[in-house]
Design brief:
Elements (H helix, E strand, L loop, with lengths): L2 E10 L3 H11 L4 E7 L4 E8 L2 E8 L5 H9 L2 E9 L3 H10 L10 E2 L5 E5 L9 E5 L6
Parallel strand pairs: 1-4, 5-8
Antiparallel strand pairs: 1-5, 2-3, 3-4, 6-7, 7-8
This protein binds zinc ion.
Length: 139
């Protein structure tokens, strides 16, 4: 498994509209995309800093995972996503072989058309971890 960089940091917010002025007007970053991922019940907003993105996550439903995260822990960092240079599927096989608990046994489609999979925080020292690959960049 070859992790190339931090693809993005996912941050749970109650409202993207209310969070964006901080990122844009205070930090001076630019939101370049807003996208709804219906099967995850989230709306996402992306900002870029270097080759890393900030992914703001707002729940579109009171029973979504982001809504229950905010209810339990408040707004804040939700997950960290690593870019896998040699494919998410390979990484999942390797990690499962090392005893890591997987949330996703196989890659699925996430925001921006990336192939993604989540690892269980019980196996990642408390940090919900996402693996990503851009299918247009992996060979
Ligand atoms: Zn993410």
């Amino acid at each position: 498994m070859n992790l190339s960089h931090i693809e993005h940091i996912g941050i749970a917010v109650k409202s993207i509209d209310e969070a964006l002025p901080y990122y844009e007007n205070v930090l001076g970053l630019k939101c370049y995309a807003i996208e709804e991922v219906a099967d995850q019940k989230v709306k996402t907003a992306f900002l870029k800093i270097g080759q890393t993105k900030i992914e703001l996550l707002e729940s579109t439903s009171p029973d979504g995972t982001i809504a229950s995260f905010i209810e339990k822990r408040g707004e804040g960092i939700h997950h960290i996503a690593f870019s896998v240079a040699d494919g998410v599927q390979n990484a999942l096989v390797e990690l499962e072989g090392k005893g890591v608990k997987l949330i996703d046994k196989a890659p699925r489609k996430g925001a921006e058309g990336l192939n993604i999979a989540f690892l269980h925080p019980k196996s990642t020292v408390g940090v919900l971890t996402e693996l990503c690959e851009n299918p247009n960049e992996t060979k």
